[in-house]
Design goal:
This protein has seven helices and nine strands, in the order E-E-E-H-H-E-E-H-H-E-H-E-E-E-H-H. By secondary structure, it is α/β, with parallel strands linked by helices. It folds into two domains: about 20-120 and about 160-225, Rossmann fold (3-Layer(aba) Sandwich), CATH 3.40.50; about 230-259, no CATH class. Strands 5-6-7-3-8-9 form a six-stranded mixed sheet, with helices on both faces. The chain has a three-stranded antiparallel sheet with strand order 2-1-4. A hairpin with a 6-residue loop joins strand 8 and strand 9 (about 220-225). The protein binds adenosine-5'-diphosphate and magnesium ion (MG).
Length: about 260
């Protein structure tokens, strides 16, 4: 007999996080070549994105940019920063990593933005050419300081979608990093936006209820804010810079003396 009850549908989300999971397919997996010779990717990639803000941390060269660029590429975002409207064929070929990644969305969004800190200048030029400057406080982005322009861009232009940001702190003073976190909060709290951010900043990394993935091991591993080197080292340093330097310089002098 057919049930009189309607089938219970799984609850459908209408807001962020949009991108829920990223996996690498085992085909093409070659641990001897880039990108799978990067230690953090050496067992493949399987990321569950449960929160609206996700951070990626890791030493220089640990693979943060490689991962974020591949994700941006899979989303169809311009690699030098921008959304789908800003077409320029800078990704000559799909990167090896992008070719192996599969993304799961709920719900799917095509809105969004990718920004590398070092490519901000190019992106500012583009925005200056095509946009209504009133949207940025009536000033050319180049007429503002790097940090002002960066914040103006976020505060005025972007509302809905997936934002992929590679080391955004480069442009920002500590005070502006806090302003940046307020902008993130205003976008993500109502479910409008999802952020994937690589950062070395212990301030940005402190954003509440975010997921932090570390690329410093042989797999991408979730970690807690207070367990990151960014938090621990900064805290210890600020507690006593003198003690820190004494230890650092003495150790190095010992090594020099021994060699
Ligand atoms: N196209 C490439 N071919 C080979 N190796 C690369 C390529 N791009 C980056 N790498 C290497 O991959 C590693 C990770 O780089 P990257 O993703 O830029 O690290 P991060 O952003 O964490 O500093 C580095 O060792 C880098 O030299
Ligand atoms: Mg990088």
């Amino acid at each position: 007999m057919k049930s009189r009850h309607r089938e219970v549908q799984p609850e459908r989300s209408t807001g962020a996080p949009f991108l829920r999971r990223v996996i690498s397919l085992p085909e093409k997996f070659d641990r001897t070549r880039h990108p799978f010779n990067i230690r953090a990717f050496s067992h493949g990639i399987d990321l569950a994105l449960r929160t609206k803000v996700t951070f990626f941390v890791g030493e220089n060269g640990s693979g943060k940019s490689t991962l974020l660029e591949a994700l941006a590429e899979c989303c169809g975002f311009h690699p030098e920063g921008g959304n789908r409207d800003h077409h320029r064929e800078t990704f000559a070929d799909r990167s090896d990593l992008a070719q192996t990644l599969r993304l799961s969305w709920m719900p799917k969004t095509t809105e969004g933005f990718f920004m590398r800190a070092e490519s901000f200048y190019n992106f500012a030029s583009y925005i200056d050419r095509v946009s209504n400057l009133r949207a940025y406080g009536g000033k050319s982005l180049h007429g503002q300081s790097h940090g002002e322009a960066f914040l103006a861009l976020f505060a005025n232009r972007f509302e809905q979608g997936l934002y992929i940001l590679d080391e955004p702190e480069a442009a920002l003073s500590p005070q502006r990093q806090l302003s940046f976190l307020k902008i993130i909060h205003d976008l993500e709290a109502p479910g409008h936006a999802q952020f994937l951010i690589s950062t070395h900043s212990p301030i940005i990394l402190g954003y509440p209820d975010a997921t932090i993935f570390s690329l410093d091991d042989d797999t991408i591993r979730e970690t807690a804010y207070r367990e990151t080197e960014h938090f621990l080292l900064t805290r210890d340093f600020l507690n006593s810079p003198e003690r820190y330097f004494r230890h650092l310089f003495d150790t190095q002098e010992d090594e020099v003396r021994r060699s």
